[in-house]
Amino acid sequence: MSNTGHNTGGASTVTGDFEWPNRGHELTTTSIVMTVLCTLVAVWRIAVRFRISVWLGLSDWLMIGGVILNFVANIPFVIFTVNGGQGRLMADPWWQVPGRTSYELHMIFITQCLNVYAMFLVKASICAYLMALNFGPSYRVLIWVSVVIVVLCNFIMMLILHFAFCRPYYSRWDFTVHQECWPAAVSEGTAYAQIVANIITDLIYAAAPIVYLRHVQLSKRTQWGVRAVFLLALVGTAISVAKIPTTYHFLRSTEPMSDAVDLSICSINEVAVGIIIANLPPLRKTINNLLAKVLPAKFASTLGMTSRKQSQNPIASVYSSKGHTKLGKSADDESERYILELEDRKAQRTGIVKTTHVDIHNDTESSFRP
Questions:
Q1: What does the pLDDT average to over 108-136?
Q2: Within 10 A of 156 (CB to CB), how many other CB atoms are there?
Q3: CA 230: distance to chain centroid?
Q4: Crossing angle of helices 58-72/256-278, nearest 10°?
Q5: Can you give the residue ranges of the Rhodopsin domain (predicted)?
Q6: Is residue 209 within 8 Å of residue 280, measured between CB atoms?
């Protein structure tokens, strides 16, 4: 006879003197911590963007959409999946209650959809950001390749998997209807294809800072910021790589509800880290200013993070090779200017003369804002 000590799905089931293991708390903790962290970074980015201009760009709106989907997936719905039984062993008496398996599969389906499409919007935001930077022809081809990969693998292919793999799609959790599904190999192949697509696009995005260092002469402070973005981008790539063996183990597991925790944690971290890294370039100057105040003066000076309240030279020059890094003329000061350190400063206004050799004059405010 089963004596259940707790009625909530997140707690362990007690049968007699035996307490059934439940890994749900691992998923809940990871979900809340990573979601709060990445959401705060995204809100910070939007706040900084608003200080520059109230008109948000396409990249900003896509990021906002991705953050909202990620938040909804991880705060309410991950908690719903844990309360519904994710993290429990299949032999746990918890599953003997009618309807619990159906409810859990339904919550997992919704959470997976939200997570996947949140990743799609985050990737699309990065693509829009890089497009606005207007790199040289060679790298722009790679950006367009990443756009095609993101649309095909992170959106269209996922739509087909979620809503056409089994017909009707709600037969995934509704056992009262007749189900017709494609072979399991299709689902497995799609899962691996999405992971590989994420790795490829991550590497393309991570190469962007390296392209800047090769073709644009930047200050030491900016170079350190660019290197940091490159290294952090590799963290997201590492998570995607780690997801491959995790997916392989899950698809062959005899304890799908318990082992699904590992795969869910990988997916949560993958999107959260992607959001954090994608929001770093627009926050580079703000972060550098904070580090300049926190780090010892000598160390900050070595990294080129010394706070500059006034310009040391009347004219600052930024060189770029032909065909690389065009600077837009929009009056809303697009956030990509932060990478090239051409953003407005409270203490000085800068002007841009758009030639192969771009000169920034301190005394020409009118040329910066039409």
A1: 92
A2: 12
A3: 14
A4: 150
A5: 44-288
A6: no
The rounded distance, in Å, linking the Cα atoms of 72 and 116 is: 12
User: Which of 138, 286, 278 has its CA nearest to residue 214?
Assistant: 138
For 246-278, write each residue's pLDDT tens digit. 999 999 999 999 999 999 999 999 999 999 999
Q: How far apart are CA 210 and CA 231, in angstroms?
A: 11
Kindly state the tokens that stand for 335. Answer: 């956030």
- CB neighbours of 144 closer than 8 A, spacing ≥ 6? none
Question: Residue written as tokens 């800068």?
Answer: 350
| Statement: residue 70 has pLDDT above 80 | yes
Q: What is the domain partition of the chain in residue ranges? A: 14-285
Listing from the earlier edge strand, what are the strands of the sheet with 357-361?
Answer: 315-319, 357-361, 351-353
Compute the 3-state secondary structure of the chain and give helix, strand, coil in percent, each to the nearest 5.
65, 5, 30
Give the Å distances, CA to CA, from 275 to 195, 269, 270, 365.
Answer: 17, 10, 9, 34
Cβ atoms of 104 and 87 within 8 Å: the answer is no
Alpha helices, DSSP H, located in 53-136: 58-72, 78-84, 100-133
Lowest average pLDDT, out of 150-159, 264-273, 295-304, goes to: 295-304
Closest CA to 268 of 18, 34, 14, 20: 34
Dist CA 336 CA 65 (whole Å):
19
| Cα distance between residue 104 and residue 80, in whole Å | 8
Q: Tell which CATH classification among 2.30.30, 1.10.240, 1.20.1070, 3.40.390 matches the domain 14-285.
A: 1.20.1070
Task: Give the angle 227-229-276 at the CA atoms, nearest 5°.
Answer: 165
Q: Which residues contact 163 (CB under 8 A, 6 or more apart)?
A: 169
pLDDT tens-place string over residues 21-38:
999 999 999 999 999 999
Query: Burial level of 364, CB count in 10 A (0-12/13-18/19+)?
Result: middle
